[in-house]
Amino acid sequence: MPEGPSIVILREEAEGLVGRVIEHASGNSKAVDFAALAGQRVVALRSWGKHFLIQLEDRALRIHLMMFGSYRINQRKESAPRLSLGFTDGEELNFYACSVKQVAADLERQYDWRVDVMSDQWDPKWVLKQLRAQPDLLVCDAALDQTIFSGAGNIFKNEVLFRIRVHPLSTVGALPAAKQRALVAEMRNYAFDFLRWKKAFVLKQHWQAHTKTICPRCHIPFHKGHLGKTRRRSFFCPQCQIQYPAALKPARSDSKSRSPRTPPPS
């Protein structure tokens, strides 16, 4: 599933379509009134988290690429597009295997840009407040919560928790205040590292934890599991990533913890 930086790249690649007029629209989406799009001018292209937003004069189109979505600018795939926009100058924008919905044109009232890890309106104090409002939430789930870190995905989760040395099964409320602040700061920092590496086609080369088998700090095997309510894959080091609060050690069985009973006197 494309994460926030990838949607920013899409937005930048399509930026030349701003101000263009839609000549025709088609596709197999059942949530779009294609006839109503003809003659509409593209007012702006925006992104919020994993949403690509095409702002028109009287409405907006929200595209979510889901797990297998893709797009083509001035090109087509053999498969049928979910949404195809053709412009008066012959250019076109095509989306495949994605979710497309019509939403109201006033995007400012629909989205909280303060929690978007890529937004100029990102507000770390507000994000920290949203994070601390859910003290029982596991950090592996908090890192994927789009109401806290819009645009972050599973790569973010694994890489950032490794950076700040926090175990994914820690709870938000048990984290020291410094670790809570570090989580917020590094989610933002990693967003722009991700963007830079993605543009240079070297993103995977910089992964330290995601899909890895050996911890580069401790040189021991990573643990892997589908953790939290999201059940997304987590890769973490059991030695340098600390769990808050500490996990309880399982009690030893009676056969190992006690000496054999003395039989009662006869």
UniProtKB/TrEMBL annotation:
It holds the Pfam family Fapy_DNA_glyco. Residues 2-94 form the Formamidopyrimidine-DNA glycosylase catalytic domain. GO terms for molecular function: damaged DNA binding; DNA-(apurinic or apyrimidinic site) endonuclease activity; lyase activity; oxidized purine nucleobase lesion DNA N-glycosylase activity; zinc ion binding. It catalyses: Hydrolysis of DNA containing ring-opened 7-methylguanine residues, releasing 2,6-diamino-4-hydroxy-5-(N-methyl)formamidopyrimidine. Keywords: DNA damage, DNA repair, DNA-binding, Endonuclease, Glycosidase, Hydrolase, Lyase, Multifunctional enzyme, Nuclease. One of its GO terms (biological process) is base-excision repair. The keyword Magnesium does not apply. InterPro entries: FPG_cat, FPG_N, H2TH_FPG, Ribosomal_uS13-like_H2TH. It comes from the Bacteria. Belongs to the FPG family. This is Endonuclease. It comes from Duganella callida.
